[in-house]
Amino acid sequence: MQPQTTMSLNIGDPAPDFTSTDQNGQPIKLSDYRGKKVVLYFYPKDNTPGCTAQACSLRDNYADLRASGYEVLGVSVDDQKSHQKFISKFELPFTLIADTDMKVAEAYDVWKEKSMYGRTYMGTVRTTFLIDEKGIITDIIHKIDTKNHANQILN
User: Fold this and answer.
1) Would you please indicate which residues are annotated as catalytic (active-site) residues?
2) Do β-strands 27-29 and 19-21 pair in parallel, antiparallel, or remain unpaired?
3) Of 16, 30, 60, 75, which has fewest CB within 10 angstroms of its CB?
């Protein structure tokens, strides 16, 4: 059994394919993005301060991310309705995946035990995977600067 601090995925590994649903209830598969670079970012919860700052950093730099060849996919365990409100409120131009069964988070080993105020609970560890056109992980960003996340990806 691996210690909780180690990721089971590493740079150079194939990104686990998945099928889930987007904010509109449409099926979405990572393999549909073959031939494109993907920013796959996992975040804990819609409409919270850190997650909003992160999403807005990606939104504000979306043209630069696209110019660098990236498609952006956000993943949280929130449902489609929550994602729709989050997208609408902050005018997010990218897809959010409703991982309500936590299968995508588990496949990427970001569903972990966390603690806050002395209470432990299971939740999403904020992590971003950069995936190349062949579906290979080229970078994993663990220490997310929510306000400058797009710059972490682009630089």
Assistant:
1) 51
2) antiparallel
3) 60
- Mean pLDDT, residues 67-87 taken together: 97
The amino acid occupying position 87 is I
Reduced to 3 states (helix: H, G, I; strand: E, B; else coil), residue 46 is coil
8 Å CB contact between 59 and 145:
no
pLDDT digits (tens, 9 = 90+) for 3-16: 344 448 999 999 99
Q: What percent of the chain has pLDDT over 90?
A: 90
Rounded to 5°, the CA angle 149-9-145 comes to 15
The structure tokens listed for 79 are: 């449902």
What is the structure's pLDDT at 8?
Answer: 84
Instruction: Give the chain's domains with CATH numbers.
Output: 19-154 (3.40.30.10)
In 3D space, the residue among 99, 86, 88, 96 whose CA is nearest the CA of residue 49 turns out to be 86
- Locate 24 and state its tokens: 């509109």
